[in-house]
Specification:
This is RNA polymerase sigma factor. Pfam families: Sigma70_r2 (PF04542), Sigma70_r4_2 (PF08281). The protein is built from ten helices and no strands. The chain is mainly alpha-helical. Helix 3 packs across helix 4.
Length: about 180
């Protein structure tokens, strides 16, 4: 049994200190995942806190011996889905209004182009349908294998393969001008 799974057994027994250890260990990965999904740092921070509240509230649902990361990421992904649906129902709030880029201190033409390219990638990823964006973020940014993504998203491994294929195809098309520049 992994260290995280052992901590979850303690959490299931009501050990708040074990939850604190999990929170310290997983805070940054959860926030990173949520930032990529909702494209907003402040919202991601709020959703990360809510994720750990849900871990505590749903501790009885954790299956002893199961991998912790997909279980916890499923909670975070579901919270992100709900928030994105909420935003879509309120047209005055757009994803772009919430998204903020990293303002680096680097200067020069190459740094400006790198920032522009990074923003183009962020924008293209943000425009993906939610199910495709989730699969892509979990695979590319979180480095999760397809089997864990399937557990996290509650779908089959074949569905994950399909989502990744479609997401990468869309990105390839949207970012074609950047690939041509890099090759030139």
């Amino acid at each position: 049994m992994s260290d995280d799974a052992e901590l979850m057994v303690r959490v299931q027994a009501g050990d708040e200190a074990a939850l604190g250890t999990l929170m310290e260990r997983w805070e940054m990965p959860v926030k990173g995942l949520l930032r990529r999904l909702v494209q907003n740092g402040a919202e991601a921070d709020d959703l990360a806190q809510e994720t750990f509240v849900r871990v505590w509230e749903q501790r009885a649902r954790y299956r002893v011996g199961a991998a912790f990361r997909p279980w916890m990421f499923a909670i975070a992904v579901n919270l992100a889905r709900n928030r994105l649906r909420w935003w879509r129902r309120r047209p005055e709030v757009t994803l772009e209004a919430w998204s903020g880029g990293d303002d680096g201190a680097a200067s020069g033409a190459m740094a400006a182009e790198a920032r522009e390219r990074a923003e183009a990638v962020r924008r293209a990823v943000a425009e993906l349908p939610t199910d495709l964006r989730e699969a892509l973020v979990l695979a590319e940014y979180e480095g999760m294998p397809q089997a864990e993504i399937a557990l996290t998203a509650g779908v089959s491994v074949k569905a994950v393969e399909s989502r990744l294929y479609r997401a990468r195809g869309i990105l390839r098309t949207k970012l074609a001008s950047w690939t041509q520049r890099a090759g030139a």
